[in-house]
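So, can you check these tokens?
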Amino acid sequence: MAIEVEKWIKPQDDPSLSIRVRIPKSTANPAWPIAIREKFEAHHPIGSAPRTCYALGFWLGNRRGDIA
């Protein structure tokens, strides 16, 4: 980004700039379906530890270790 768009770094015969990496889609941790989220939210009241952890992870997108 800094090289291509902003021109912050001036490349000087850097062969690594020609490499394009394709990141595969992950199926290891799929998102919860809406029905499951609604069931979880109905079961755990606002202010409980599970609901707080859920909200932090869902709305902030932090890693599980950061939330813990």
The mean pLDDT is 83.
